[in-house]
Design brief:
The chain has 13 helices and 5 strands. It has 2 domains: about 5-180 and about 295-320, 3-Layer(aba) Sandwich (Rossmann fold), CATH 3.40.50.620; about 200-290, Tyrosyl-Transfer RNA Synthetase (Orthogonal Bundle), CATH 1.10.240.10. It is mostly helical. The strands form 2 sheets. The protein has a 3-stranded parallel β-sheet. The protein has a two-stranded parallel ribbon with strand order 4-5. It binds tryptophanyl-5'AMP.
């Protein structure tokens, strides 16, 4: 059995990019692996959060994990700040990483561009993420493409520590899906779909109403040549819609292109809207039930206990290998 770990930031507006790139994998992997899924609240405070909203979003993400099919009987679901090992290991790894490698992270470069000074937490974000992963002797990390560089630096740090000290960490692999690993914004297919974009029609949130879903897809940016074909360079908008269609329907992009040969964008978008609406119906229904249930917090308390048992063992090994304590 392999160990799987992944996390989602509780920053609201969880969208179909998060689902198709990551959450879908969470469900698939739990059948044959030991899975640990975290709500990474400490990552979310790298940018200022409203405390009340943050607490709400933490429970929202927990409920969404279950709404999409993560089963707390099979997988561990917990909140990052409930297990102190994350912060503890993060410091140890900070001492094993370099400002040069952190400066090369595109996410940091994007978020700090044009600013003389940026929050330290944004800079060290990848180290906390490496701590999340290494704390659980993780083999597989299911994520979207945007996390590739973060997985790479995690691997580099793990290998570096293993060389310098006794073999301490399992070196993890990222797991990326073909269709869905990078869902682009509907209003601008050159940038990825994001939770924080101002335009609500740039994304489809998992809890969006049917009318909103249709509106966002119908008004999505395409091009003027009218042909439905996959071409990331020339037709990024249509290609993005084809990817979403493929990920939700299970049909290959080639099959979809053949199916819509000679059709206009309008018909294609309408059917994509229907497929998307249908895929989200059960998620919304499950979410509303789970979010209101008394069980939710107990599941997180139990998850944190189970996660902590694993984390404590790793921290003992880390301290022994580094010579910390006595
Ligand atoms: P976050 O919260 O931004 O996103 C959660 C997951 O969704 C994926 N994702 C996407 N996939 C496809 N298309 C998109 N447009 C898209 N946008 C987001 C992300 O790749 C991610 O898998 N740093 C992480 C959270 C994290 C983590 C971890 C993940 C913290 N520690 C340890 C794995 C392991 C993040 O910001 O995810």
């Amino acid at each position: 059995m392999k160990r799987v770990f992944s996390g989602v930031q509780p920053t609201g507006n969880i969208h179909i990019g998060n689902y198709l790139g990551a959450l879908r994998q969470f469900v698939e992997l739990q059948e044959e692996n030991e899975c640990i899924y975290c709500i990474v609240d400490m990552h979310s405070i790298t940018v200022p959060q409203d405390p009340k909203e943050l607490r709400k979003h933490i429970l929202d993400v927990a409920a969404l994990y279950m709404a999409v099919g993560v089963d707390p009987k099979k997988s561990i679901i917990f909140v990052q700040s409930d297990v102190s090992g994350h912060a503890e290991l993060s410091w140890v790894l900070t001492c094993c990483s370099y400002t040069g490698e952190l400066s090369r992270m595109t996410q940091f470069k994007d978020k700090s561009r044009g600013k003389e000074s940026a929050p330290t937490g944004l800079f060290t974000y990848p180290i906390l993420m490496a701590a999340d992963i290494l704390l659980y002797d993780t083999d597989i990390v299911p994520v979207g493409n945007d996390q590739k560089q973060h997985i790479e630096i995690c691997r580099d740090i793990a290998i570096r520590v293993n060389h310098k000290y006794k073999n301490t960490f399992v070196v993890p692999d990222g797991r990326f899906l073909k269709a869905g690993a990078r869902i682009m914004a509907l209003d601008d297919p050159t940038s990825k779909m994001s939770k924080s974009a101002e335009n609500i029609h740039s994304r489809i949130s998992l809890l969006d109403e049917e009318g909103k879903i249709k509106k966002s897809i119908m008004r999505s940016t395409t091009d003027s040549d009218g042909e439905i074909r996959f071409d990331l360079e020339e037709k990024p908008g249509v290609s993005n819609l084809l990817n979403i269609y493929s990920a939700f329907s299970g049909e290959s992009v080639d099959e979809i292109v053949v199916k819509y040969a000679g059709c206009g964008y309008g018909d294609f978008k309408k059917e994509l809207a229907t497929i998307t609406q249908e895929a989200l119906v059960p998620i919304k229904k499950n979410f509303n039930e789970i979010r209101q249930s008394e069980e939710l917090k107990n599941i997180l308390i139990n998850g944190a206990e189970r996660a902590n048992t694993i984390a404590e063992k790793t921290m003992k090994r880390v301290k022994d290998n580094f010579g910390l304590g006595f």
